[in-house]
Design a protein that fits this description.
alpha+beta; 18% strand; 6 helices
Length: 244
Amino acid sequence: TEITFTPDDTIFPNTKFDFSILETRFREIAFLNKGIKIILKDENSKKKETFFYEGGLVEFVKWVNEGKEPIHKPIYFTKTENKVVVEVAVQYNLGYQENVLGFVNTINTVEGGTHLTGFKAAITRTLNDYARKNGFLKEKDDNLSGDDVREGLTSVISVKIKSQELQFEGQTKAKLGNTEARTAVETVINTEFADWLDKNPNDARSILEKVLLASKARMAAKAARETVLRKGALEGMTLPGKLA
């Protein structure tokens, strides 16, 4: 099937296609639908790009992590839960930036939504459970926070929901509102990621060492900040002349 269209210049008099915007969007679509080939060609400038990724989301996280130092191979799983198709790829790197991307029916939900809320809650819970069970966290230790477990994390979460059941917040479709998406993503992460950690103890250790270091840095920064605030409060207390 070939679909061709030309914008009507009586309605769109200043139409100009931005190659870089189309390039970004087509790359996303090719990553999210492994095996599909998209050719973008500008016949004016003769510029041409071809997008084809057999690895799908695995190649997506590798592409996002390009130039960074990953600490393990990409983790990938897909499962249908309560009629919601969940597809996830995860890879930690030695950096400090969190890069979690969410898509619903290939729409980039830049403002997040229930699928990302479920992912973040589940990955935090799963890593805390694993850390407790395997002695990385002692009984008296505080739990790892969401910020700790997402430091250096690159992940792509793609869910597919029947279009008639989709619920977005706002007209721009930038935020997903379906509660079943959160439940589905949480269930998949809780089972599949926990299973992966058990089967890959060396990689699991590398991830835990990374997030525990983030936790220690956060606690040290908090203690230092409290010391400065306490010292500043004491210095600000002026005594009457005679007592001074």
